DNA sequence: TTTTTATATTTGTATATACAAATGTGTGTT
DNA sequence: AACACACATTTGTATATACAAATATAAAAA
């Protein structure tokens, strides 16, 4: 369905407006579908994102700052996301001995197991949207998005 | 900046994953910039979206259902968004006399004036991201996004 | 050493998202 | 009329976003 139909617009939209609406709407579709995958695991998309960042550390602890700057939403509240993960025993949290202002966050074995179980489902989700497009179209979409975002 | 740099990824990402991350991240950039435009007017992006839908009614009242289905985020809570707009006198809300289950929501003169004042800033925001791309690239981006979203 | 400044994180408040349950109203059936 | 069912909206609860203020610690300056 075209974006005008999705929002039931009755007027012709400028291409610059259509692209904005298309990106915002597509993001909603992606997120809704991803939330369904995560639902049985009782974690949110943002919590998943934190876990994924922690796994990427390969055993090294991450502090709040470094998690924050790797998040997609730059204004996420990492403290509270880590709080939730701590309650579920998916991460550990300790004051850094070298610099007591910092907090060392580590993913637990339980957290790693959850991510490993999710891995194939996440890949399936990513491929789902790409499956009817050829490599050239995918590369083109990616390049155009980056050109668009960087003004 | 490429998406890998934005999220400080150290590994090469599959194209299907890059596109997902690119869309999610680009949406955040668009929303953050738009929120700044709205800030002086003390309304949120979702509240703006409701006002824009109501103006599109051209004097006809809209009920909660029809507002909901025109929203970008299909799970927005229209009742509470309209509550906020009512407090600022940007809309009126009345029970529909023909069907008392329905609510008639109308944009006020104050609401219309706010939208009119915002119009040029919104267009400027839309054009900002498109300005370094030619018509063909813009059309191509729009088509690829729609093909992508519809699997 | 005390003060100032910078850094890292937490907390508070308002708003919005997500979803289920509750409420109120209209329609059709017996 | 009484009942069941569908429709439209509201309300409740948990989570997340957005942003400012508060707290704690470290480093630099006086």
From TrEMBL, chains A, B:
What the entry lists under SUPFAM superfamilies is as follows: Winged helix' DNA-binding domain
Transcription regulation as UniProt keyword: yes
Pfam families, per the entry: MarR
Q: Which residues form the HTH marR-type domain?
A: 1-150
Q: Which PROSITE patterns match?
A: HTH_MARR_2 (PS50995)
The answer to whether keyword Hydrolase applies is no
Q: Which molecular-function annotation in GO is an example for this chain?
A: DNA binding
Q: Which UniProt keywords apply?
A: DNA-binding, Transcription, Transcription regulation
Protein name according to UniProt: MarR family transcriptional regulator
